[in-house]
């Protein structure tokens, strides 16, 4: 892949800049601007060299607007123009402003359908394509994999950094501790299998652990589990670490800490317990490299303690540390300890897919 600093004769060129600005918004205000800040150096670099920018991003949900994100950018670039309707129309006079901001790409179903005519139309706005949207580059969408067919293509600085930093996980220092939380066991099983051979210890937490506990014969009550049976046959038993105690919530709302073999039928696992964090703490002290993605509890419903305690332990450790995933990064931001980690990935699903396969559809489209 070629990065933006290798674009010839940038001045005056129209550049289609694909960003990932799918950030949390509440009451019309941006709650977390982590991904936006990651993209700003590439935007600033291109603007400082006289490029004309067409900025495009998706926002989860075809009926949602990027308006609040536009206002964020307009505070930095007052000359920026917003274009609400651009397919099958063009960007019109807004293109003369020098920096154009397109409304949510997913407003058009052609984006997710990877419609080549849609991609060709987007390409008609510009002379160069730049992908600075690593977090969505695991999606086979028009602006990610078809648009680059029609223009000279480059990646942004943050995109290149993601690939470089995450690739460290393939040849890491040892001992290597891999920590995986969150849900969707069926999609993360390939990753668990891959890193059970690369890592010295693999800790599975969050809702993923429910599947493993159930496979080992424990009752998990009403906890979230996947539709498939957890197959552990390919994973060395000595490497795999699962919670020994958990925080549970009963149907009447009572919250308590229990050993994993005492979960009642009317209870749901909502977080990892203190003894589990203590075991993890010892592994963290011994590790030279730590890779972590996904929360240990039901983070969005306020069960944050396990995740935050884990974040603090890793932040205090001397190990090289790479962390990713939306809720994981949010917990680190809340604690204001981001500078204590070697690298914070902006990717959630993209990070996991890259780690599992060594590539992404968006990477292949740029090569």
UniProtKB/TrEMBL annotation:
Enzyme Commission number: 2.7.2.3
Reactions this protein catalyses: (2R)-3-phosphoglycerate + ATP = (2R)-3-phospho-glyceroyl phosphate + ADP
Gene3D superfamilies: Phosphoglycerate kinase, N-terminal domain
Superkingdom of this protein's organism: Bacteria
SUPFAM superfamilies hit by this protein: Phosphoglycerate kinase (SSF53748)
Keywords: ATP-binding, Kinase, Nucleotide-binding, Transferase
Molecular function (Gene Ontology), one example: ADP binding
Any single Gene Ontology cellular-component annotation: cytosol
Positions that bind ATP: 188, 300, 325-328
GO annotation terms (biological process): gluconeogenesis; glycolytic process
PANTHER family reported in the protein's UniProt record: PHOSPHOGLYCERATE KINASE, PHOSPHOGLYCERATE KINASE 1, CHLOROPLASTIC-RELATED
Entry's family note: Belongs to the phosphoglycerate kinase family.
Protein name: Phosphoglycerate kinase
């Amino acid at each position: 892949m070629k990065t933006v600093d290798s674009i010839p004769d940038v001045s005056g060129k129209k550049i289609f800049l694909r960003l990932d600005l799918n950030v949390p918004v509440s009451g019309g205000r941006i709650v977390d601007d982590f991904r936006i800040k990651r993209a700003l150096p590439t935007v600033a670099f291109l603007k400082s060299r006289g490029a004309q920018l067409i900025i495009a991003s998706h926002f989860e949900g075809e009926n949602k607007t990027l308006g609040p994100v536009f206002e964020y950018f307009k505070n930095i670039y007052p000359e920026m123009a917003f274009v609400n309707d651009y397919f099958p129309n063009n960007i019109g006079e807004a293109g003369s402003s020098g920096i154009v901001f397109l409304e949510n790409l997913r407003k058009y179903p052609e984006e997710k359908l990877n419609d080549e005519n849609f991609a060709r139309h987007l390409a008609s706005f510009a002379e160069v394509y730049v992908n600075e949207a690593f977090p969505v580059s695991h999606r086979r969408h028009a602006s990610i994999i078809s648009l680059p067919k029609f223009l000279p293509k480059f990646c942004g600085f943050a995109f290149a950094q993601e690939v470089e930093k995450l690739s460290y996980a393939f040849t890491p220092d040892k001992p290597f501790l891999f920590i995986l939380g969150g849900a969707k066991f069926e999609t993360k099983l390939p990753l668990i299998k891959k890193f059970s051979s690369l890592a010295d210890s693999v800790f599975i937490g969050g809702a993923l652990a429910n599947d493993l506990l159930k496979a080992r014969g424990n009752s998990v009550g009403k906890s979230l589990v996947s539709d498939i049976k957890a197959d552990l046959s390919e994973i060395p038993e000595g490497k795999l670490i699962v919670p020994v105690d958990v925080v549970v919530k009963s149907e009447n709302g009572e919250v308590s800490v229990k050993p994993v073999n005492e979960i009642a039928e009317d209870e749901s696992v909502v977080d990892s317990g203190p003894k589990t964090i203590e075991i993890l703490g010892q592994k963290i002290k011994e590790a030279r490299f730590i890779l972590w993605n996904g929360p240990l509890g039901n983070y969005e419903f306020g069960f944050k303690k396990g995740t935050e305690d884990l974040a603090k332990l890793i932040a205090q450790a001397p190990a090289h540390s790479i962390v990713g995933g939306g809720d994981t990064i949010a917990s680190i931001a809340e604690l204001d300890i981001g500078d204590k980690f070697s690298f914070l990935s902006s990717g959630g699903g993209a990070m996991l897919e890259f780690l599992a396969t060594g590539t992404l559809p968006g990477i292949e489209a740029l090569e």
